[in-house]
Amino acid sequence: MCRLLGYCSLRSAPVASLLTEEGLLGFTALSAFHSDGWGMAWYNTDGPHVEKSARRAEDEPDYGRLTHRPLGDIGLVHLRWATPGLGIGYHNSHPFRYGPYTLAHNGAIHPQDRLGEMLPAEGNGGSPEQPTASATSCTSCGGWRGEAAMWSRRSPTR
Asked: Which residues form the domain of 7?
């Protein structure tokens, strides 16, 4: 399963300062095994932002740069361990964004061979190569219930 880190702070802060450098190194070291991509989502006054890659976090300069920048006061970091049989690529890397929402899930999607028939046409974008993104798209539309999903949304009244 993937590794997820969610955070909430009183003000915009780098993930590295919230975890300490030692804590961030320990979390990032998990990407030696969870090496199928990484992603970060955060909210600031401009709304939600997502950066992600299909590369291993430990090898990605953008990951190091982003974890040391104050991005927002709420966010998440995701280290991906792909479901066996699903592709490794940018479109299957988490988190995903749908309007004001970001999502990263921790778990496998099964049964893979029936995923296309389980997802409504308006949710899957007609992309059998991207079942994780398709299922997430459908989740955000309310047509599918994922296992162990984590939604993150900034309150508009905050």
From this structure: 3-152
